[in-house]
Every structure is written in structure tokens, then in C-alpha cells.
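Below is one protein, fold included:
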Amino acid sequence: MTGAKKELSSEQHTLYSELIPEHKKVVNKERHLYEVTPKHKRYRIYIGRFFEQKKGLHSVFNELREAKGNDYLEFMINSGGGFVHEGMQFYNIIQEKFTGRTVAYLDNRGYSMGALLFCMADKRVIYPYSDLMFHTYSHGSQGKGGEVKTHVNHTSKKLEQFFYDIIVKKGFLSDEEFKKMVIGQDYWMDAKALCKRDIATHVIIGGEELTAKEYLKALKKEKRAKKEKKKNKNNKDINSKDAN
């Protein structure tokens, strides 16, 4: 039996936490060997737009910073993007509390900062119609000429490094693709492309969770079946004409 759920909401995101009791899985019944999952908390946060203007994320991150060593974090992402600095806060909490214990579900779309957040997770799960888009950041500055120049240069350097570490160092885009992205090219990806690039690690389809490789094999098998069906139909039509 699971523990009581707790809910915290910001303007755009909702965090649920739940206590999961200790679980034993039989490894060898005769030898009384078990795989034990200790009691832990599951934090699940539904991600919307990164656009907190009133409440901010203080209550959400304060709750996440109470996490212990066995707790893990799930992201349910359906986001068109938004402020990069909010995404950086999620990056920081992963580094501080959940390294190696994060799962992201791309529930429909992950664009811009939503795409980056998806890429931060250790396990990245998609659905057949999940959609992801990488593009460069937008930012501006105001003040005296020298101040604007200094601020823009500083911010550009920091953000480009942040994007590079998440996207390129993990092999999701090549260096050449990243250079094109920085100067304006968008990269749109469907489920097949996400699996081919190893951005997605798993796909949920028909109530089953497949690895990305298994999903790609299933697509190839489906394509071959359709091709064979079309070929058989064409042969049948030809034979029917010959008979006439």
C-alpha cells in the first residue's frame, strides 16, 4: 500500500510526491534470495510552460530538496518551452538530489526548454506521437551600449555552453548541427527520429514499454509487412487481369 500523496502547484507546474513502501522481488525462491527496493519517495512533476511570473518555484524546489538518497524524480512533459533560467533550476536540482534517478515522459510535446528538460533525464520515455524540437535561445538586454554588449556576450556564452552540454555532449546533435541551431535552424523530431538518435530510451505502445531499439525493429517489421501486403495485392490484381 502506498503512502498519502502530497500536491504542490506553481503557476505552470504541479508536483506530486508519494511514499512507496519497501518492495521485495523473488530472485531465487529455493535459496530465499530477494531483490529489495527500499522505502522511498516518488516525486512526479507535470511540466507546462516555463513561465513563472507570480509565485515562482520556491515551494516546488523546497519540497524536492527534502529528497533522500533512494528517492527518484519523474517528469511528465507537455511543454512549448519558456524561460531558460527556470529550466536551469531543474537542472540544478537533478545535479544536487537526483543524479542517476530521473525519468522523463514526453507526454505529447517538448519544445525548446521542454526538449532540454527531457534530455536531462537518465531514462527518457516517449509515445508514438511524441514530438520534440530543439532551437536556439532568445534573450535581450537594455542599458548603455557597453553594458548591453557585455551582458549579451556573457549571456550568450553561458547559454550556448548549457545547451551544448545537454544536447551535444550526450550525442543528440552533432557539432555541425549545433552550430546551425545556434544561428537559427530548428530541429523537429518524431518518435522514430528520437529513437534513432538515442534521445528516447523507451517507447510506450499498446500498454507495453519497449526499448528504443525494440521499437525501431517493430517499425521495420511493420513496414515490411505493409510492403509484402501491397506486393501480394499487386500480384493478385495482375493474375486477375491475366485470367480475364
In short: The chain has a mean pLDDT of 91. Residues 62 and 200 are 29 Å apart (CA to CA).
